[in-house]
């Protein structure tokens, strides 16, 4: 066999190209060089192979495959943790301004659409091999894609931090008054929410944010989820303990001569349209955003596959749907039209150890969660600026400036509904609707076998654009009309 192979090689070397005018005279097929003739088609094929090799290397650069070690059950817990956040506190307010039926319709719609957007994201990840949202955006759209993804995820994380610090601003004064044995009406400079949030930020959060590695604080996400489950249990329990509408509504209704007015105020409404209805969809969207965490959780999944990760997302979103709806419905049926954008703030902790416990647990949870989100935003900022090498002065300066900006926003933003509204119609809309569908359409641009899927993705993209075009002007209009007034704070 070796001899035969050598013979064939010799024969090939002695072969001559047949004289054909169509070949020899075509400069596109042959290229003259000093030592003879070389087929330019061979060069073209070689360049194609080189291009494919470069493309493959680029993909491998994005897809550094590391086997996952996290079980399916733990992945469900992690994704549920990523979904759950302060948005749960605003859902009762959203329900109070849409009615039970309309709210349920919106909640079901956003849940299903979020699951579909996760599907698109997983397909894009599979096609490109990218397990990081920013890298996926850069792989598909280049630097603009990376910038857009960075902006959306950073705004979402900043919005979450604002909502968490807003909880501190609202709830910590009440907790301190209770521990001091003071009435809720007690006012002193050291129980001012604005002063307390600044004190907590620079006394507790700043030192934690200055650490080089905040990995251990990731465990607080489990504590945060436990607090929210505890909060839901208390909301359900208090529905059967607090009289119709709560103490404020009873005080109001006691001076009403007509008892039918009281009955009307305590009657659930099923469909409502008013100036605050516009905040319902952004609030729900804000509550369901977890997309920056999906790909990292996917990369850690044991024996990972697109189908398995889709199952993780389906279970997580269904669990959060149940939890969100129960919190919203029981919170609404406790306070009805008097519910606020921060549901926890409606419960008075005076002489109520249970409410005080929930309040303190949620405050501690959000204080310890803020540094984790802050670490992500700062790391993305340094990555974008290509300043990945640690520099102490830059590290401290950027941390301090960002925390000052965030505190100024917390102090001057009147209510949590404004945070939910702005972040919901901007970054949440980008992360749920626009980015996954745009990435999918770009990746499958020349794939004729996915025409049906491309049509659905195009409709999904159009829905996200329409959501922005309708919601943003309505939110701005409500700001102008209300003059930035706080609803009950």
TrEMBL record:
The chain crosses the membrane at residues 76-96, 102-124, 145-167, 187-209, 216-237, 278-299, 311-333, 353-375, 396-413, 419-443, 455-477. Keywords: Membrane, Transmembrane, Transmembrane helix. Its main location: membrane. It is found in: Membrane. The keyword Membrane applies. It is a multi-pass membrane protein. Residues 69-473 form the Amino acid transporter transmembrane domain. GO terms for cellular component: plasma membrane. The keyword Mitochondrion does not apply. This is S38A1 protein. It comes from Podilymbus podiceps.
